[in-house]
Write a structure and sequence with these properties.
By secondary structure, the chain is α+β, with helices and mostly antiparallel strands. Helices cover about 25% and strands about 25% of the residues.
Length: about 600
């Protein structure tokens, strides 16, 4: 796509949406245009830098780059006289259909609309042979591949079933009102015609092979591909999947030093040795911020930020779980502007018979989550593994021609960490009935893998499924009491046999003040909420169909679910770290099938 084809469009998107939903390469419908969001090379100016060495180290290794910066997306300027800021967007697609040509008779409904290219438009309208100005809308069909490449369909080649020199008028014909692809046809005035249902059938390869187009990166950015092109509906839910990586900021170094360096990082980012540091400290602002800190302490923090690869290479969740399970009384510093502060909640305040599998409850009064966009996929989402890591070598679409920085946001909030007794979980997994259920769930996963050839996804194991299901139960129960909607609560599942088992239910906001403590108050009555969660999950409104679901059933096509559906366990996908996969409430509570594989003691007393 040449620069001449770029058209400036105006619209606003929240900064957090640019990370999770509408990053580079995403298609967006603005009031007057349909656009493709441009890559990072067309974002200006760069937002504030975010420091999170643990995440930066992971991203450097993932992208195979020496250094990486994390920055906020460009902010909106409230001052109308300030220089323009924002993100460029390319007009996409370049084919349109007219809106006011249709015919109808007594027996059938047929709607015919002209298919016109952007080059035929005059001020956004098509002028026909009768000099009538016709309004147009972007065509809803484009082509794409699993590597993220995207482009307009070659409509002439499609309707003529191969390369052709015919350039007569094309029409989109709808023979019915359902909108089903079998009722939508592309017709040429030379009488050639083809159904869009053929374009949707992947085996027919009706759209040809992908040409590697990456229009969001600008002109001359094609790469070799060879994947077959697939039909993509612009507004479909599988058109764009952000691939993100997030970490919880942990007090693994002196936060006093970290906070002081943060305030004057613009002066210290280029410091190479102690002599340069002493020179910078002569400046009044720097000296005031670093008052009470030695040169060696400050330089150690600067060096750690610049050489992020020196940070110990633990998995994302391993580092978090080690911090949480080793908590005695408190972790972090108890100050209003701190990034992390947690207290162990005394067991005598929550100990009840139904809480037997739970060993510890930690109230996380303050936490900071840093979320970075790494890349994106189309057609199929790629979630992090159970340790929070993204796979190295996975083919993901690039965000820029050369990646030197990535967009990121900070979420500040609170949470509740629930640690499970490791010995209890391991004894439960060893039961024959639980192992039999595990074989059924693994068989369902094998069916899923058969349909997703080339996927590197792995079965997470029974402890993960149990914890994940319990987490969804608790999120649903807590949302009824804490004042937060269920969609604002998120989860982190920790199933690491060498360290322990637990879940973190948390909420956060990009607002500088964070949240207001509602989740902490819920945590003080956590035993009541867990009881409510267990009781609600015992019976689903879709039972017995839900509880008797067979993961291998090709009819239901839910290979990654046991006893789980929208009536009991499924929640907003923004809250779930596995996109609502790997769930089975029978592992947590008894269902109407009474399999006897639940972890929690029953009946509750």
């Amino acid at each position: 796509m040449s620069k001449a084809r770029a058209k400036r469009a105006h619209g606003q998107i929240r900064q957090s949406q640019l990370i999770t939903t509408f990053g580079p390469g995403a298609m967006i419908d603005l009031p007057d245009h349909s656009v493709l969001l441009a890559g990072l090379d067309y974002w200006f100016p760069l937002g504030e830098e975010i420091s999170e060495p643990r995440l930066q180290e992971k991203l450097c290794r993932l992208l195979d780059v020496p250094t990486i910066q994390l920055r906020l997306p460009p902010p909106d300027q409230d001052d109308p006289h300030a220089p323009a800021t924002g993100i460029n967007a390319w007009q996409f697609p370049e084919w349109f259909i007219t809106q006011d040509v249709s015919t109808k008779d007594d027996e059938s409904y047929v709607r015919s609309r002209m298919l016109v290219h952007r080059s035929e438009l005059n001020r956004g309208r098509y002028i026909d042979r009768d000099k009538k100005r016709r309004s147009v809308v972007p065509i809803r069909f484009v082509r794409a591949c699993r590597a993220g490449h995207i482009g307009d369909i070659d409509w002439y080649a499609f309707v003529h079933n191969g390369p052709t020199e015919c350039r007569r008028r094309l029409w989109i014909v709808e023979r019915g009102t359902s909108g089903d692809l079998s009722e939508v046809f592309v017709r040429c005035e030379c009488r050639a015609e083809r159904s869009m249902a053929q374009a949707a059938r992947f085996a027919e390869r009706a759209l040809g092979n992908c040409d590697g187009a990456r229009p969001w990166l600008g002109p001359y950015t094609k790469e070799k591909c060879g994947e077959p092109s697939r039909l993509l509906i612009r507004t479909a839910s599988n058109a764009y999947f952000s691939q993100i990586m997030s970490v919880i900021s942990l007090p693994d170094r002196d936060e006093t030093i970290k906070a002081a360096v943060d305030t004057v990082w613009e002066f210290l980012s280029e410091v190479e040795d102690l002599e340069m540091l002493r020179y910078e400290r002569r400046k009044a602002r720097v000296n005031a911020s670093l008052d009470g800190l030695t040169d060696e302490e400050v330089f150690a923090e600067i060096d750690a930020r610049r050489n992020v690869t020196t940070v110990e290479q633990k998995s994302v969740k391993q580092a978090e779980l080690e911090t949480l399970v080793t908590a005695k009384e408190a972790i972090g510093e108890d100050r209003p502007d701190g990034n992390f502060f947690a207290r162990t909640f005394p067991k005598e305040k929550w100990d009840q018979p139904w809480m037997q599998p739970i060993e510890r409850v930690v109230l996380v009064h303050r936490l900071r989550e840093v979320v970075s966009l790494v890349g994106f996929t189309r057609f199929e989402a790629l979630a992090p593994d159970i340790e929070g890591e993204l796979e190295i070598g996975v083919r993901r679409a690039s965000l820029a021609r050369e990646t030197s920085w990535l967009p990121a946001i900070e979420n500040k909030g609170e949470g509740i960490f629930i640690q499970f007794n490791r010995e209890t979980v391991e004894k439960w997994v060893a039961q024959d009935s639980v192992q039999h259920r595990g074989h059924q769930l693994e068989a369902g996963f094998a069916c899923w893998m058969d349909e997703h050839q080339g996927s590197n996804r792995q079965f997470p194991g029974l402890p993960y499924l149990m914890l994940h299901s319990f987490s969804h139960m608790l999120i649903t129960a807590v949302s009824l009491e804490c004042g937060y909607p269920a969609s604002s609560l998120r989860e982190r599942i920790y199933a690491l046999p060498s360290i322990g088992y637990g879940i973190l239910i948390y909420t956060g906001t990009t607002d500088a003040e964070g949240t207001l403590g509602g989740l902490i108050q819920v945590g003080r009555r956590i035993h009541e909420h867990i009881r409510n969660a267990l009781e609600m999950a015992e019976l689903c409104s879709n039972d017995p169909v839900c509880s008797q679901h067979n993961p291998q059933s090709e009819h239901e096509h839910r290979f990654l679910h046991g006893a789980a559906c929208h009536g009991c366990l499924l929640i907003a996908e923004t809250s779930c770290e596995q996109h609502n996969d790997f769930l089975d409430r029978a592992l947590v509570v008894p269902t109407v099938d009474n399999l006897g594989i639940e972890l929690f003691p029953w009946p509750m007393v």
